[in-house]
Amino acid sequence: MPLFEELQRLMIQYHFRPDKKLSQFFCTNEALLHYLIKVAKVTKKDSVLEIGPGTGFLTKILLENSKSVVAIEHDSVMFDVLTNEFKEDIAKKKLILIQADALEIDFDKLGVNKIVSLPPYHISSKLIGKVAISKNLDRCVMVLDKGFVEKLTAFEGFLEYCALTAFITLNAKVELAEITVESQSFFPAPNCVSKIVDIEFNIKNNDERFFIFLKELFRHKNKDLRRALKQAHQFLVAEIGWSNIAQEKYDSVKLAGKKVYQLSPQQLLKCYEELSKIKN
What we know:
single chain
């Protein structure tokens, strides 16, 4: 049965409509779902996390290709749909279904090594930030809004370059699939074009304290590093405990005269490590 017809069946049987406030745009393009599995290189050895499974169309394909699936669904209506549609897989513990806000879950405690998902677009930034600080992931493949994805893949010196960009590209190889996902792949159709992002992790430093440092520094991204550090000083003292650093020390930091947004992820990490040594 074509996925759009299957979606109609589910909507009639369970009496629901997509909620745009929750960014519910259900994928009805089966070829796209199979392509996600291919990009993520899912095998029977993988335990896969899906965020926002919705109708379960991707969930079904993941179950066919992986060792196990953990699916986190926030919406109580869709959770009930999934619970009923996947009774056998849940009983066999092939599928672990969790009703929760994915942003409140510790992914490292789920026993998964990959993420394959079409998550709600409105949580993209927080979700990728959470994924980036996880310790046990090999790969993450998601369908996201094209505009957001452009931020993830921006180079230093570009307008879109931000703390999340620096953090994720330092710790992973981030690539875009060649295909563009048209809005007609979803029901209802979102008011944006989507892209597939493939994140293959190679951790250098994904400590949350370093991420906090970057986010505060990029609040002053158009200032030189020296001035940005001085303006961020009180926050960094409160959040990551750099109380022993005299502000004068910021003058001697390497590349102190360069603007924050012009610094590469590697240069930003060296700055953080240099300051951490001063602290200790």
